[in-house]
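re: the backbone from monday

yeah here it is again, tokenized this time
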């Protein structure tokens, strides 16, 4: 489990992270979202002992990162896949990590296979694509058989097959009792992968909860043959509806509530579905107006 308590980071006059607290539970995948410059990387760096906090603290399974005798055995970290040494081969990279973690060298070979890089074991990392470096970084993070994973933008640069592979890997890891914290700008991918979300804006937590709770707040989009008549019926039932440019209505309410009003008013629906999904939730939470 990861427990972040009142974490603050100040750079001169700039408050990059402002009194941030959240928890990542065992067996779950938590998505850490926020616009550029919101403070995600700074938080992840403080969490993994790379940046000292101005105040507050983080524990991983009850210990701070700095106090862990062999941190890679408890927490696997990938903060910048592009930062790996370009002159080493993939195999050399993982063998070096294996030595640092006191893991048998043969596990480096097995890990390369597990992350789909067996065929590129002897190629220099400088010649790897970004997606291949992400796979290598994930292999590095997993090599110590940790129970916690912290990944900054792991899907960045991955092709659809790679993204699907990574989603399965993380979901299996969590299902086996692991704890995952990942940041990403790929909202569709986050929505398909995580159980919980922590959203940061301007250094502060603006939302923290289950994915389902957050999506429930994204409302319902409905389209009817006679849109204005349905809008009037919804308003009469106390549901707020906004007409979008494409003629559909965005309703603050569940699909069931909207469907019942439509049925009672005799409206002919041509579409009924979830609101804007995670993208809609994200923009609502992190827009300047929300701040
Ligand atoms: N070493 C530093 N010195 C001064 N300011 C910094 C430093 N590191 C980060 N910042 C500032 O802190 C704020 C948060 O940066 P951070 O990199 O954590 O954001 P982020 O949410 O990870 O953004 P992105 O999505 O672009 O990666 C930014 O305004 C950034 O300019």
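seq for it, each position gets an aa:
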């Amino acid at each position: 489990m990861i427990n972040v308590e009142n974490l603050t980071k100040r750079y001169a006059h700039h408050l990059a992270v402002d009194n941030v607290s959240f928890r990542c539970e065992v067996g779950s995948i938590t998505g850490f979202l926020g616009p550029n410059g919101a403070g995600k990387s700074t938080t992840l760096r403080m969490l993994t002992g790379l940046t000292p906090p101005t105040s507050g603290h983080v524990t991983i399974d009850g210990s701070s990162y700095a106090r862990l005798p062999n941190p890679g055995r408890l927490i696997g970290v990938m903060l910048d896949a592009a930062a790996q040494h370009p002159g080493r081969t993939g195999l050399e990279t993982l063998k070096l990590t294996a030595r640092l973690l006191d893991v048998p060298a043969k596990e480096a070979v097995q890990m390369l296979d597990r992350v789909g890089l067996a065929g590129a074991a002897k190629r220099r990392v400088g010649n790897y694509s970004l997606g291949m470096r992400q796979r290598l970084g994930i292999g590095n993070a997993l090599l110590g058989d940790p129970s916690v994973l912290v990944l900054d933008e792991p899907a960045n640069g991955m092709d659809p097959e790679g993204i699907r592979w990574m989603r399965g890997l993380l979901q299996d890891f969590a299902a086996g009792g692991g704890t995952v914290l990942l940041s990403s700008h790929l909202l569709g991918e986050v929505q398909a992968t995580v159980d919980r979300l922590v959203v940061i804006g301007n250094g502060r937590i603006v939302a923290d909860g289950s994915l389902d709770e957050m999506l429930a707040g994204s409302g319902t989009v409905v389209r009817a043959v006679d849109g204005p008549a349905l809008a009037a019926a919804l308003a009469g039932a106390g549901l707020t509806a906004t007409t979008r440019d494409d003629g559909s209505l965005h309703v603050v309410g569940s699909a069931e509530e909207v469907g019942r009003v439509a049925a009672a008013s005799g409206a002919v629906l041509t579409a009924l579905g979830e609101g804007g999904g995670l993208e809609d939730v994200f923009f609502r939470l992190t827009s300047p107006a929300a701040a």
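The mean pLDDT is 92. The chain has two domains: 2-211, 219-275.
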